[in-house]
Amino acid sequence: MTIFSVRHVTEYRYNRPVHFGEHRLMFRPRDSYDQRLLDATLICDPDPQQIRWIQDVFGNCVAIVDITRPSTSLRFETWITIDHTPQVALDLEIDEAAATYPFSYDPEEEPDLERVIQRHYPDQSDEVAKWASQFVALGMPTPTGQLLMTMCCAIQESFSYARRTEAGTQTPQTTLSSRKGTCRDFALLMVEACRSLGIAARFVTGYVYVADRDGSTTRGGGSTHAWCQVYIPGAGWVEFDPTNGIVGNRDLIRVGVARDPRQAVPLYGSFDGGPTDFAGMSVQVNVTTRPADH
Question: Which of 39, 125, 132, 187 would suit a FRET pair with 153, their CA atoms being 20 to 30 Å apart?
Answer without folding.
Answer: 125
